[in-house]
Amino acid sequence: MTSQKRISAPRTYNIKRKQSTWVTRVNPGPHDKNALPLNVLLRDILKIARNAKEVKRILNKSKVLIDGKVRKNPKFPVGLMDIISIPSLKKCYRITYDSIGRLKCVLIPNKQAELKIVRIKGKSRKGKAYHLTTNDGRSIIVKLSEGKKYSTHDSLLIKVPSQEIIKHLPFIKNAHSLIIGGKHVGMTAVLKEINGHNVVVIINKEECRTIRDYVFIIDEGVKVE
What we know:
225 residues, single chain, 3 domains, SH3 type barrels, Structural Genomics Hypothetical 15.5 Kd Protein In mrcA-pckA Intergenic Region, Chain A, five-stranded antiparallel sheet, 9% helix, CATH 2.40.50.740, 19 strands, mainly beta
């Protein structure tokens, strides 16, 4: 099946369900199922195009960059923490979640357009290096001595598109985070306790319980809401 009905589109799509019958189906790519096609992002969320034809015209003129790279496919998937740059408008956005779990765009300062936060999903040793796989499908190679300090669920502040690691953001107490699932989705929090799979975070000065997978460590100086 190559088409997607609006009424059955993933809940992460922030679109009007009954406006028309069909919506662009996202291509397989770096993100899991929680990704939007670029066409939906530009037309329905950012509203810089009125229809799919205008989106194609904008993309074919190389006016849209995702994580520092020009993307021309309207079905290209964009997801959590991706950076959308539109140089002609002098605007940059970061993809995050709203309070009901839909993907949204947050306007960020242009100086942060090359800074992206990724979460380590896997870590494996290959020869004299470690390979770190991230939530957005990246594979970052680090030296053996450096790689020992990284663990799954830690985050990295990197430059895009070079993937240069700027800062290590460990999954530890007092770390700042973004909640990416559950009833507190889209809210920023401070990690208070870690009890295996379960964690306690502080949200608006109140203690809340959630699970480790829902806590995405972020850098305090990077705008996510």
